[in-house]
Amino acid sequence: MPISTTMRLIVELAERVQTVGAEMDLPYIAVSADIGSPEPMRGPDGRPFAETLFRWMDPTLEYWKDRSFALKSPLVHAARACAEPFFYSGGRFATWRPCPAIEVFSYEKMETAALGAAIVAPVYLPGGAIGAIVWASPDSTLDVEAIFAARAESLHALALRLLSAYHEAHGIEASAPPVRLTRREIQCLKWAAAGKTDAEIADIVQISLPTVRFHVTNAARKLDVAGRSQAIYRASTLGYIGAVETGNRPLTI
Fold first, then answer.
1. What is the pTM of this model?
2. Is the model more confident about 118 or about 111?
3. Is domain 5-169 annotated with CATH 3.30.450.80?
């Protein structure tokens, strides 16, 4: 069966990931299109890239077959805490700026004892999925900080292109455009996300209780989810619900 244009592009990008790794002396590569899913990234032949194109320094660590790997790996946990590329060297995690969110993972036991240096490019995708690409080496003397300074931006762009294309090609993220919520629907969901009951929202927004329920229910219908909590979650992944200020007061809209 002929390979689709998109799949051919994905293979070319994956090969570029491998080539760049060799250029940086970080030849060992691990990839995940969604760190919340045990499903590995696969090539056009259906086999995981981890078995065909990429290799890891510990041949006994078949991370793509271990469903609990994402719960144990400091590299994966750090990708949950930082949306920017970061590096691992000398037992510590760091990026281009002070970042306590990933520094807390420094000196944790690594899943691969031989890991000496690594650069990680997390990719935050529509719908709440997080993917990541890791370039690694067993050489602890490698000046990975200098490599990171020179390459971080291009590595991030490469990871974003590969994982975004992969998600779209495999239907992992919705192909339909995001729904449009009204100002009042967003307002009600924001207060609900801040922990307010429908009655409290009615008092705050100065509309009737049935009207609050109508807006929340209508938002859930548009978002194709069931219930208030799922509507809040889905709206937050689409960027409709932002940060909640101190005192559980959402930013006004």
1. 0.81
2. 118
3. yes
